[in-house]
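Exercise 7b. C-alpha cells:
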C-alpha cells in the first residue's frame, strides 16, 4: 500500500504542510515512520481523512484552490468495479470528483483506494490519470 509524506498529503488535501502536521500531531490522521524516521500516512488512512475533510470536517482556514487546465490532483477514495465499467471517486482538496470509465482502464492504471491520481475535467467528462 502506498504511503505519503506529510508534505505530499498536504498538497493532496489542499492545505499547508504545517496544517497537515498539526492534524497528525492531534491524532486526526494516523501516521507511521519509515526506516529513515520520516512520518508517513498510509494511503487508505489519507483517503478516509480526505473524504471527512472534504465534507466539512476540516478547519476554517482560508485556502485558495486552483487547477491548471482543469486538473484536480487528489487521492482515490472509492472504486466500484462492474463487469465492463467502473466508477472511481477522487477527493481533491474540498472537491469530490466521480468518473465512469472501463474496468480495463482502472486495472491498467492500478487504481485503488489510497492511490494518488489526478482527475481532469473537460466539459461534462472526468478523466483519471495515475500520478
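Sequence design result:
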Amino acid at each position: 500500500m502506498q504511503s505519503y509524506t506529510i508534505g505530499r498529503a498536504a498538497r493532496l488535501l489542499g492545505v499547508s504542510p504545517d496544517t497537515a502536521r498539526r492534524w497528525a500531531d492531534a491524532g486526526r490522521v494516523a501516521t507511521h515512520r519509515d526506516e529513515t524516521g520520516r512520518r508517513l500516512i498510509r494511503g487508505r488512512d489519507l483517503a478516509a481523512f480526505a473524504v471527512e475533510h472534504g465534507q466539512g470536517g476540516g478547519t476554517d482556514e482560508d485556502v485558495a484552490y486552483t487547477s491548471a487546465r482543469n486538473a484536480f490532483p487528489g487521492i482515490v477514495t472509492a472504486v466500484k468495479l462492474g463487469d465492463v465499467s467502473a466508477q472511481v471517486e477522487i477527493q481533491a482538496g474540498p472537491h469530490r470528483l466521480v468518473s465512469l470509465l472501463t474496468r480495463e482502464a482502472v486495472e491498467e492504471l492500478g487504481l485503488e483506494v489510497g492511490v494518488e491520481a489526478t482527475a481532469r475535467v473537460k466539459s461534462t467528462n472526468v478523466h483519471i490519470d495515475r500520478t
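Instructor comment: The helical segments are 6-13, 17-25, 43-57, 103-109. The chain has a mean pLDDT of 85.
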